[in-house]
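Minutes, project check-in
Item: structure for the 310-residue chain
Input as provided by the requester:
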Amino acid sequence: MLSHKHLLGLENFPREDIQNIIDTAFNFREVLDRPIKKVPSLQGVTVVNLFFENSTRTRISFELAQKRLSADTVNFSASTSSLKKGEGFKDTAQNIEAMKIDAVVMRHPTPGAPKHLTEFIDAKVINAGDGAHEHPTQAILDMMSLQEKFGEIKNLNVAIVGDIDHSRVARSNIYGLVTMGANVTLCGPPNLIPDTITDLGVTVNYNIDEVVEWADAINVLRIQRERMGIGLIPSEREYRKLFGITEERIGRKEKEIVIMHPGPINRGVEIDSRVADSDQAIILDQVLNGVASRMSILYLLLGAKDGDMK
């Protein structure tokens, strides 16, 4: 069980809860390695995937996690809903809950929308990304992947490189990693790193080569064209030259460095294909850990009981 009813973000989220989610996720990784990748842990539980914004990886990962736990899954798409007919957010939420659902996984372009949803319904709410605010389940799968690779997160040197200002992944990773005792450095164009971000317990270094030399792991963020508009970077070619994780840059470091990316990847921009496809990259491990960690979150929020993972 977790100390919070919902998972809305990792800001002020207890260290013990994060570790509990990660430890339980490793148990579910074992389930995913079995010939029959399914347990009856959430049989009879109904989960609604409420997505107001396009998603591929996160939505499929949640759907698969729910099915692996034997939960009943209902998918809701805003583009084909009554919202298009003028129905309000509150009425939509309450009508869905009237169907006796147990949890809602929500993605929304507006920061704070999942928290707003908790004011209208009694079901558990899991934030699957709210604007440029937070993406807590992505950060948890990232931390699980780091623990799997290094054994522990405490004292790791983790760099987050790219568009920090528009990234919900960056914010959740910062909150989570700092809580778990990692050393976090941010790197990217100065106009894409908020002035007050160091208040969160991180450092900023605009020299990518120094950051690569310092880091045990680099979480590479994509350039978010859909959020930043036009003109915040001179060109993709210039960005790659100044901040791209290239084979040449990685090759200069004597010690092996772990490369991460939340996807989707802009190959040849923030990261070169040879780096993304190298043995140092754990990007596909992150995908598998995403299913396991979301199974863990659903399981712990919706009534974990002894023996449920057998």
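Outcome recorded: The CA atoms of residues 142 and 225 lie 23 Å apart.
No further action items on this chain.
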